[in-house]
Write a structure and sequence with these properties.
The chain has six helices and six strands, in the order βαβαβαβαββαα. The chain is an alpha/beta fold.
Length: 154
């Protein structure tokens, strides 16, 4: 995996008043998107980075609070990842590693490939209850998440 730890770095973090949840859609549009869109609003602002050309309009049109941004560059992606409080259900190792290099922990269910790369309560949290995983992941030390990525993902 070729991730530039200088590009994906906590230095690009913008702290927002409201917690920010990030969903990076980089493999295929799965039911994880619907799960993400249906998360309770009080968990935080939802942002989705879309690599897929077409998003299912019927899923997104009723979710006016979700910020949907097209993928443009790794620099832009790094800024979103560093500024997110939690990356939700990362769909690939690359998304997980990039987020962790930015110091951003992951919240995931036990359904996808990233479960093999998340050390529970170190660089993310795995829980079948995604809301619990998000709440718990948001308490992790971002510096330790970055240190874990440097030690395990380079």
């Amino acid at each position: 995996m070729n991730i530039n730890p200088k590009a994906f770095h906590p230095l690009y973090r913008t702290q927002y008043e409201t917690p920010t949840l990030l969903f990076v859609n980089d493999i295929a549009l799965e039911k994880d998107l619907e799960t993400f869109l249906n998360l309770p609003d009080d968990l935080g602002k939802k942002t989705m980075i879309n690599y897929i050309a077409k998003v299912h309009d019927d899923l997104v049109k009723n979710n006016k609070d979700v910020l949907i941004k097209p993928y443009k560059s790794d620099n832009q992606l790094a800024a979103y990842m560093a500024s997110a409080d939690v990356i939700v259900n990362p769909s690939s190792r690359q998304s997980l590693f990039q987020a962790n290099f930015c110091g951003t922990p992951a919240a995931s269910t036990n359904r996808n490939i990233t479960k093999y790369f998340i050390t529970d309560f170190v660089n993310g949290v795995i829980n079948e209850d995604l809301v619990t995983a998000i709440v718990d992941a948001s308490t992790l030390d971002r510096h330790k998440v970055r240190e874990y990525a440097e030690a395990h993902f380079e």
